[in-house]
From TrEMBL:
Superkingdom of origin organism: Bacteria
InterPro entries: Homeodomain-like_sf (IPR009057), HTH-type_TetR-like_transc_reg (IPR050109), HTH_TetR (IPR001647), Tet_transcr_reg_TetR-rel_C_sf (IPR036271), TetR_SbtR-like_C (IPR049445)
UniProt-recorded name of the protein: Helix-turn-helix domain-containing protein
HTH tetR-type domain residues: 17-76
Amino acid sequence: MRVADGERPAPQRRDARRNREALAAAAADVFAELGLDAPLDVIARRAGVGNATLYRHFPTREDLIGEVFRPAAAVLAEAGEEALAAEDAWTAVEGYFTRIFELVATSRGINDLVTMAIPTVPVLADMSHRNAATVGILVARAQEQGTMRGDVVATDLLFLLGPLCRAVPAADGLRPGLWRRHLALLLDGFRAPATHPLPEPPIGDDRLDQLFAGLWEA
């Protein structure tokens, strides 16, 4: 029935809201277990509904991903704001990436979000761009403070941390928190003073999405 101008639409039926919430909860669990490529029919079965109900609420996989991981995007945004507010840039870099790795250790889905470019999901594309901007600011500040080597750029840090981030679930499966050792080791390579100059120029920020897409296709 058409809603007349000025009238509020009828509230969503209780069972429809319940189905949507059940689908989002089931998707969070399944994505955490299997990653973002998890079969959607598995999610529908886990929620106790049919595929038609799933597609009625979430017409595309991207719609479902955006709904499920909006809270995770908010957590990462908060972590970035806290890092940018810190006075010591090196401590902020360590703390920021530790927060990210702690989050991805809990979910294969979040790991996919952080390490893969998904431009078709606005909230996640915004998260990716915000993350790159935050890292760029932190790198520049650490270099100004003399704690990070001066011949690196944000894309260097993001490129090296991407594969390590992908390995976090496997490392955590061997021993919870094992990834902390390797994160500390990697970050130490960015400390000043540098032992050896870098042999190649960096890529630009505009190539970052392309770089990550090629990384997982290789």
